[in-house]
Amino acid sequence: MAWFVLFGAGLLEIVWAFTMKKSEGFTLLVPSAVTIVAMIGSVWLLALAMRSIPLGTAYTIWTGIGAVGAFLFGILALGESSSPLRWLAAALIVSGLVLMKATSSD
Fold first, then answer.
1. pLDDT at 106 over 80
2. Which residues, including other chains, have CB under 8 Å from residue 82's CB and lie 6 or more apart?
3. Dihedral over alpha carbons 24, 59, 85, 21 (to 10 degrees)
4. In angstroms, rounded to a whole number, what is the distance separating the alpha carbons of residues 46 and 82?
5. Structural domain range at position 54
């Protein structure tokens, strides 16, 4: 169950990164509010997951989901650049997440 909670925390991290970008420096009310709520929810779910998942594993996977998810959202929803090196970097992050999960004691 903790892994599902951690995945949810990672998804909320993607939400807050995306809505923070859309808030234009916290000058727009709705995206700013969504950002803050998603941040709180993401950290809260991360804390719950850390009850049974080791700190290093949980934090690495949480930030990795957020980083790769924000990368994908940037390309798909915001038209950010997509180059082979950026895709390689994202693939390396994902491979690191897989290795972290595979070597986790939980």
1. no
2. 75
3. -10
4. 30
5. 2-102
